[in-house]
């Protein structure tokens, strides 16, 4: 039964991510899974593949394994083989995880499918809205970044390396990445949800700057 496979996989990932950092912990995975299920209500795609890929998408992050981009897809494949999932399903899930981990625009996308579009949208939705704001400030705090500095202007198109080493305030991340995500959604369902979350971030920023100026 598909639901047994999905439940087993969730239990495995929850256990595996027990000590993960807060940006990519089990709760991030669970939210991405829920976002994916929400998208599946209006998008026509293979549920088993979407749910398994969403649950396994951050099972092993290259960042913490000397940049080994294959660690995620390989871990997912080994696990799915161990519980006897059909090989065509494993292949598809592995492709989704591999191509998602090459992040937006890095290298050529070798693979694309409706299922992959949904999982990628579900992951991106978790970077915006109320949760996205919380994640950004958590990351900024971890990196010892200031909240905001009026003298440091956001620069949206930096290389990944430049971006990683930047000491820009967390508010800049909204202009460099978070406010751009709504236009990167693949599916109409995700575009609708992103529009709402985007508007919430804009209201948040208006309030933030008004408070910064002592206007409210
Ligand atoms: P992903 O693996 O989902 O592509 P990242 O590892 O780049 O995401 O980031 C994880 C979380 O940290 C996301 O919510 C992202 O918005 C946030 N984040 C990444 N870089 C920054 C930054 N420079 N400032 C603030 N938040 C950041
Ligand atoms: Ni993720």
TrEMBL record:
It comes from the Bacteria. It comes from Arcticibacter pallidicorallinus. This is HD domain-containing protein. Gene3D superfamilies: 1.20.58.1910, HD-domain/PDEase-like. Residues 25-128 form the HD domain. InterPro entries: HD/PDEase_dom, HD_domain. Pfam families: HD.
